[in-house]
Amino acid sequence: MRVYTRLLATTTDAGASKPFRPAPMALLPPIPLYRRLLRAHRRKLPHEERLIGDMYVKSEFRAHKDIDNPVQIIGFLTEWQLYAQTLEGDAWKDAKMERAKIDKMSGASFSLLAPHSRPLHSAPTQ
C-alpha cells in the first residue's frame, strides 16, 4: 500500500463551527500571574501609574478569589494574562482602550480609572 504524506499531513476542521482557530494559550495559575503583573508594573510603568495599577490588580484578584465558576475563572485569567503580555511589550504605549471594554467596565472600575485618565480632546489654550 502506498502512503501519501501530503494526505496524512493535512488537517481539517470539517463540521467545526469556527474552523482553524488558533491554538489556545496556556494559562498561568493565579499566583504566578499575580506576581507577573506586579513585576511588569514595576518594570514598565511610572511610579504614579504603578501605584494605581498595583492597587487595581490587588483589588481584582481579591474580589475574584472565591469564584467557583470555571468559565469566569478562565475568562479572568485570560484577560489578565493578555494584559500582562501587552504590558511587557511596547505596543501599549500609544494604544487606546477599546470602546467595548470601556462599556463593559463596572461603575467601581470606571471610577477608579476616570480620575487618572487623560482627556480625549484638550481644550485650546488662549
From TrEMBL:
Places the protein is found: Mitochondrion matrix
The protein's assembly and partners: Interacts with the iron-sulfur protein subunit within the SDH catalytic dimer.
Entry protein name: Succinate dehydrogenase assembly factor 3
Superkingdom of origin: Eukaryota
Principal location: mitochondrion
Claim: Chaperone is one of the keywords in the record: yes
Source species: Zopfia rhizophila CBS 207.26
One BP annotation, GO: mitochondrial respiratory chain complex II assembly
Family, similarity comment: Belongs to the complex I LYR family. SDHAF3 subfamily.
Biological function: Plays an essential role in the assembly of succinate dehydrogenase (SDH), an enzyme complex (also referred to as respiratory complex II) that is a component of both the tricarboxylic acid (TCA) cycle and the mitochondrial electron transport chain, and which couples the oxidation of succinate to fumarate with the reduction of ubiquinone (coenzyme Q) to ubiquinol. Promotes maturation of the iron-sulfur protein subunit of the SDH catalytic dimer, protecting it from the deleterious effects of oxidants. May act together with SDHAF1.
GO cellular component, one term: mitochondrial intermembrane space
Record keywords, A-Z: Chaperone, Mitochondrion, Transit peptide
